[in-house]
Amino acid sequence: MGRLPMLKVALLLAICVSAVWAQKYGVGKPATPTDIAARDYSISAKGAGLPPGAGSAKEGQELYVKHCSTCHGLKLEGDAEQGNPALAGGVGTLTSAKPVKTVGSYWPYAPGVFDYIRRAMPYDNPRTLKTDEYYAITAYVLSVSGIVKPDERLDATTLPQVKMPNRDGFVPDPRVAGKRPSY
Amino acid sequence: MRGPFRGPRIFHFGDRASHDTFNPMAKRDRRGFLTLGAAVALSSCTEKKAAVPSEVGAPMTEYGQRSPFEKTARAFKSAKPGTGGSRTPLEETYGILTPSPLHFERHHAGVPAIDPAKHDLLVHGLVERDQIFSLDALKRLPSVSRIHFLECSGNSGGEWVNPQDTAQRSHGLASCTEWTGVLLKTVLEEAGIKPGASWVIAEGADACLMARSIPLAKCLDDAILAYGQNGEALRPEQGYPLRLLLPGWEGNASIKWLRRLQVSGEPMHSREETAHYTDLLPDGKARQFTFDLDAKSVILRPSGGQTAQPGFIEITGLAWSGRGKVDKVEISSDAGKTWMVATLDEPRLTKAFSRFRLPWKWDGQPVDIASRATDDTGYVQPTTEALVAVRGTKSTYHHNGIKTWRIGADGKVTNA
């Protein structure tokens, strides 16, 4: 029992692993970096994928009024009747009888705010604003909750450094199935 | 909210079941026509002829329609176009399958109109080979057809503080259909998963590019890339031409109009897995990635909005569990003091609706009836009180508490 059997095992393992992931059917076609870039909008919680560009709350206020206030209100108060969420306020209410979940009080990641606004807004015309404008609107929404200063410029470097008030507000799902379940 | 079809309905025996299975004296003659034994022959049967059409009926059609007499419909609030949910009238369905046109809907930016020839699926990220699969390519791969329920985790969300008065309103964000497609595992292995992968970010082609992060283990287990539903192509509102289907998990994660899968070493923490679909607890913390749908059941006949008649009643309803098969459903007619075991239709399928039935006699006195499901993990459906004791009343999602209906002296059924 020298080195040889170990080597054989390692070789066998390597063959198995590569066999598992070898292309079996060959029905897909290769995706190019261009294909991926054209479709990939996602930005990680840590900010990976944030595009070049920048904007401040000062620049964002006018854009917000123009593109967002019809649904979310001039004071970011939202319109519950129409299902348009409030974007500011509610900090400190999460343990109360009437928790108010907003970008300011509930959302854990600032890059996530940018991701969603760029991905899905304006509601009836999504992904039509410029990257700088999305940064500026994000900055304005965060500024109304006092999370960033009015003249603070947000970009791919500074946005991930913004700490959201509810950053540590989330816990994993503890539920288990079985005879002694947890709810 | 209440549409014209929601009016009170008389519920009594014979309403749904065929008479020949009920009447022990009934028998069929050699030609298969129902005849009645002499002991129960009714004069009206022989004297009156049934009204049958005297003209040739309608011609064949290429795509069938239901009878114009049938009005069962999904119910929804008309809010902002493209948002909100429509609810399945579970109490007006039979068996375990939901007809595709009655399957509940939940959209966040409307139903996109997608030409399947122009739609494909990008698989990229921590994979050996970034790949694009056309619909035709996906259909060439080994396929599966499986019956699974789909439930919005917001189903029964009203029950936390404001219990609803019909099953459609309380439980109608759940449906069960047969899904056909390719296992997600097959497609991920075709791309080749790289070491370090632990999540897959799925993204739809709706206007809001709905995105959710799915643990890789689920993707390699029973997740389906579905293109078929109930024997035909997916309906547009169910994700045509391609959707993700995660059996037993909250519906929102089963991304519709699927266009992109990104294999990743971490979740994305998208809006729908932070700001929404997280369960706020009394201490202000919120549970995140609460995918599993625990065992649940609801009595559908008799149920809220219906009117019961004294005498024989078949109590029937649906039960399901996102953890496996339904093992047992019990019915109580004494506020949970004692429980009677209902029969369950066969076959019992995993992560699918199970139909339960219990022959019962109502004596005409006011009574509360409730059902309780146990799944094959041993989990017993809890009371709402037991849920509230842990989660408070602000967690919005994942309410699977026991639902109790009250039959009044007048037979009218309401939320208890």
What are its keywords?
heterodimer; A: 183 residues; mainly alpha; Cytochrome Bc1 Complex, Chain D, domain 2; two-stranded antiparallel sheet; 6 helices; 4 strands; 6% strand; globular; B: 416 residues; mainly beta; Sulfite Oxidase, Chain A, domain 2; Immunoglobulin-like; 2 domains; five-stranded mixed β-sheet; five-stranded antiparallel β-sheet; 7 helices; 32% strand; disordered N terminus
Commentary on this structure:
The complex is a heterodimer of chains A (183) and B (416). Chain A has 183 residues and is mainly alpha-helical. In chain A, 36% of the residues lie in helices and 6% in strands. Chain A is built from six helices and four strands, in the order H-E-H-E-H-H-H-H-E-E. In chain A, helix 5 packs across helix 6 (131-144). The model of chain A is unreliable at 13-19 (pLDDT under 50). Chain B has two domains: 82-287, Oxidoreductase, molybdopterin-binding domain (Sulfite Oxidase, Chain A, domain 2); 296-415, Immunoglobulin-like (Sandwich). Chain B is globular and about 70 Å long. At the A-B interface, strand 1, helix 2, helix 5 and strand 4 of A face strand 7, strand 8, helix 3, helix 5 and strand 16 of B.
Q: Helices and strands of chain A: which structural class?
A: mainly alpha
Number of strands of chain B: 28
CATH third-level topology of the largest domain in chain B: Sulfite Oxidase, Chain A, domain 2
How many angstroms separate the termini of chain A?
53 Å
Unreliable stretches of chain B: 1-45
Unreliable runs of chain A: 13-19
List the chains of the largest interface with their residue counts. Answer: A-B, 55 and 73 residues
Please name the CATH architecture of the domain at 51-161 in chain A: Orthogonal Bundle
Level-1 CATH class name of the largest domain in chain B: Alpha Beta
Strand order of the largest sheet of chain A: 2-3
The CATH architecture designation of the largest domain in chain B is Alpha-Beta Complex
- What overall geometry of chain A do the principal axes of the alpha carbons give? globular
Rg on CA atoms of chain A, Å: 23 Å
| Number of separate structural domains of chain B | 2
- Total of DSSP H or I helical runs spanning 4+ residues of chain A: 6
Going by CATH, the homologous superfamily of the domain at 51-161 in chain A would be Cytochrome c-like domain
Helix content of chain A: 25-40%
